[in-house]
Amino acid sequence: MAKTYKIAVIPGDGTGPEVIAEGKKVLDAVAQKFGFKLDMHEFDYGGDRYLRTGEVLPRNSVDELKKFDSIYLGAIGHPDVKPGILEKGILLKLRFELDQYINLRPVKLYPGVDSPLKDKGPEQIDYVVVRENSGGMYTGTGGFSMRGTEHEVATQNMVYSRHQVERCLKYAFEYAQRHGKKARGKGDSNTLGLVGKTNVLTFVFDLWERIFNELGDQKYPDVKRKYYHVDAACMWMVKNPEWFDVLVTGNMFGDIITDLGAMIQGGMGIAAGGNINPEGVSMFEPIGGSTPKYSGQGIINPLAAIVAGAMMLDTLGEAEASVAIENAVMEVTGKKLKSLSAGEMGYSTSEVGDLVANLL
Length: 360
Ligand code: IPM
Ligand code: MN
Description:
The protein has helices spanning 16-34, 47-53, 61-65, 85-97, 162-179, 204-218, 230-239, 251-264, 303-316, 319-335, 349-358; strands spanning 3-12, 36-42, 70-75, 102-108, 126-132, 142-145, 153-156, 191-196, 224-229, 246-249, 272-276, 282-286. It is α/β, with parallel strands linked by helices. It has a ten-stranded mixed β-sheet, sandwiched between helices. Strands 6-7 form a two-stranded antiparallel ribbon. α1 (16-34) packs across α10 and α1 (16-34) runs parallel beside α11. The mean pLDDT is 96.
């Protein structure tokens, strides 16, 4: 009997439903080709539901989602809802409650895609950022005192436990062993670069660096180690992206450098990410957001959502199907699309989905 994966689909807000529809189209096509089944169930979580019901996530939703093999998410963010409510109440809540402690973000320039970096092509721009996704400033304690007075104080602490750092670094080392440049036949070593700020954040990144070296020496001596301060890492991402293989960093730095990475790989039309719990339920999403100004016009680029679907299949263990989608996407960027930007692709959203699906 064909293997069946249960997928929870959360199309979400803005352009989310449009890009997810194309992602589903491609996933269905690849499933048929590779002989497995995707049993997809939709959930209407997002801004519209919140405005209608006053509830961000229903009480049992996390338990409900835990019954699935994976989650496929469009976008969260609604122009009529105050910033923070949906992001914290849906996206961050699911990341935390499902303990998706890794945020995996490939920075890969596909053929035919324009990068803003001069003289850099697909050979040079091909690395992955492993962003810690469960701690740091995102959960740090903090608060106000004397709020509203002249002497008001606000704090937001960067908090990391050894447990959080260790499990993230373990994932990153193992990822480097499996997907580093040597493993992919693109270099003579698998290299993990730690991105931190040991010169100023002398507590938190001291912990990261110690565990990085301990684990590296004891368990992963075959993985080459590098260290970059985060500000320098930003310089090299622009000037020498070919230096990077797999990078690992904390939550806040990871948030920032992966938006830089997304622009370098051609923008939000193509950048995808996975919120991964290696022992549990993971969630895959295009990282571009809900872009309400483009919604409902059939002009948004669905490739990021399609690539997120490919990442989902890889994590589910369908590596070949995942590679097939990525190859089809590269064919489409290389030979078909005029641009990755909304409204300038030379095709509509659903035509781009068809192009990819027909190549499978
Ligand atoms: C991302 C987003 C989120 C984050 C926001 C929407 C909470 O920017 O996925 O990178 O900061 O993690
Ligand atoms: Mn972000």
